[in-house]
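User: Hi! I have a protein structure encoded as tokens and I'd like to know what sequence might fold into it. I'm fairly new to this, so please keep things simple.
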């Protein structure tokens, strides 16, 4: 299995700390609003990564946090608190907002066949662990108190800029605006570990701590929650590219300072989904959610397929036009599969051979598009029907596209139903020809061909057969 590692900026052979086992951590959602389909692209790709690892025989333990406290819209003590903003918007308490949007998130995940991680932990469950890590960082001299907050001291690190191609100057330009307002910081990139004094007079969630009543910074939660469940050495840490800086950079800084050794070996970052006007955002125009796609008549799995058709390390642009194309491709694919009959004995050796081919294809840095190509190769192959169905079932563990689920009438059609369906289409085509709508007539012929039905215009009228 090969994987691109953002830490080294190379595609590397994946070697876990413990043979056969993988510890994997995913930055979870900030539950102040619905997830947009951009967020969900990231979760689909992470789900695929986990499933590829399992498909390849690894025993995976995946942990995800739920950010229900501490995520400010900027890293300094100057941004808005996203949770507080959500609560004010909806006239609810922060915990009500957190519960509502956590449920909504998992509901979306279910619709997209995103497997629930083995452990899901809200940040507010782990305040004691955060306090402990901050105490150790203070003891070790990696943190300091200023203006009644506790900060991480980035000047104590040997190395800080581990991700991306930004140089030190560029990075500083990026954070300068925020930092200039926080005069407590000794260094521009220092970040808050614990707030007791912030601009949020009405901060809803507060806990007692050795430094006074307050609440944690955002980054500390992922370091603590991952260590709580996965120990001091982790194999893979995932998130969207926007998490690289400052979030993941700061996670590494505090985790490795706390531990005194290297923490995570592979960093997996999913590139963004953009809309045609640019980056997807929750405050901009039509807010693209799974529910909105459903309202517009799309099966959420079509969006999963849309995500799988592209590579996770390339930005992806969303448009309804491309989603329509994906919906048509998905329908054709399902219909082709529905026409495969359970025939002959399953050829187990062939199933294994095709399993290995798929593992190699998708195991090459999550090449899901190549996995889809192989699926078509299976359909085109001369394997018998029962073997084909077995291989498709196997692939669908990773793809999770409900490939064998008979949820469309055509897919369930027996011979009589199929005949009725085809005759109906033939009549529709005859009408289209009468109306001189030849494009429509051709489209119907293509639609039938995609389902494995060939029609012929003969002197006796239109005849049809299976391809
Ligand atoms: P948040 O709920 O804002 O913490 O984000 C949840 C996840 O979605 C994080 O891993 C982000 O990096 C990721 N993310 C945010 N915006 C996008 C986007 N437009 N496309 C893909 N992933 C995104
Ligand atoms: Zn995180």
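Assistant: Happy to help. Inverse folding works backwards from shape to sequence: for each of the 467 positions I chose a residue that suits the local structure. Here it is:
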């Amino acid at each position: 299995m090969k994987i691109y590692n953002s830490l080294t900026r190379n595609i590397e052979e994946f070697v876990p700390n413990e043979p056969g086992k993988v510890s994997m951590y995913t930055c979870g959602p900030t539950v102040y609003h619905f997830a947009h389909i951009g967020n969900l692209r990231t979760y689909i790709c992470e789900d695929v990564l986990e499933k590829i690892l399992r498909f390849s025989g690894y025993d995976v333990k995946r942990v995800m946090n739920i950010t229900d406290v501490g995520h400010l819209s900027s890293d300094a003590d100057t941004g808005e608190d996203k949770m507080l903003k959500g609560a004010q918007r909806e006239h609810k308490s922060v915990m009500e907002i957190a519960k509502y949007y956590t449920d909504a998130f998992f509901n979306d995940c279910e619709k997209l066949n995103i497997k629930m991680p083995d452990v899901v932990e809200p940040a507010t469950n782990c305040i004691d662990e955060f306090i402990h890590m901050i105490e150790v960082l203070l003891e070790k001299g990696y943190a300091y108190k200023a203006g009644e907050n506790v900060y991480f001291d980035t000047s104590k690190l040997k190395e800080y800029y581990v991700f991306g191609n930004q140089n030190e100057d560029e990075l500083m330009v990026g954070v300068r605006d925020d930092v200039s307002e926080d005069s407590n910081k000794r260094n521009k990139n220092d970040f808050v570990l614990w707030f007791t004094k912030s601009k949020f007079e009405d901060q809803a969630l507060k806990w007692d701590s050795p430094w006074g009543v307050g609440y944690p910074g955002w980054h500390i939660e992922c370091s603590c929650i991952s260590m709580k469940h996965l120990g001091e050495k982790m194999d893979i840490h995932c998130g969207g590219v926007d998490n690289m800086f400052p979030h993941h950079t700061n996670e590494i800084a505090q985790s490795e300072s706390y531990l005194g050794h290297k923490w995570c070996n592979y960093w997996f970052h999913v590139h963004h989904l953009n809309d045609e006007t640019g980056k997807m955002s929750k405050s901009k125009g039509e807010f693209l959610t799974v529910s909105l796609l459903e309202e517009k008549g799309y099966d959420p799995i079509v969006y999963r397929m849309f995500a799988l058709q592209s590579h996770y390390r390339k930005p992806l642009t969303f448009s309804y036009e491309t989603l329509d194309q994906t919906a048509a491709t998905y329908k054709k694919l399902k219909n082709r599969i529905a026409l495969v009959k359970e025939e002959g004995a399953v050829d187990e050796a062939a199933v294994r051979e095709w399993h290995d081919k798929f593992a190699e294809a998708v195991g090459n840095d999550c090449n899901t598009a190549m996995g889809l190509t192989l699926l078509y190769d299976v359909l085109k192959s001369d394997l018998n029907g029962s073997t084909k169905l077995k291989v498709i079932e196997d692939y669908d563990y990773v793809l999770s596209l409900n490939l064998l689920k008979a949820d469309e009438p055509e897919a369930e059609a027996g011979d009589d139903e199929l005949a009725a369906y085809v005759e109906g289409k033939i009549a529709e085509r005859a009408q289209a020809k009468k109306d001189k709508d030849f494009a429509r007539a051709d489209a119907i012929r293509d639609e039938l061909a995609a389902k494995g039905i060939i029609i012929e215009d003969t002197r006796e009228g239109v005849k049809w057969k299976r391809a």
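A useful reference point when you look it over: The pocket of zinc ion (ligand 2) is lined by residues 27, 222, 247 (CB under 6 Å). Feel free to ask if any position seems puzzling.
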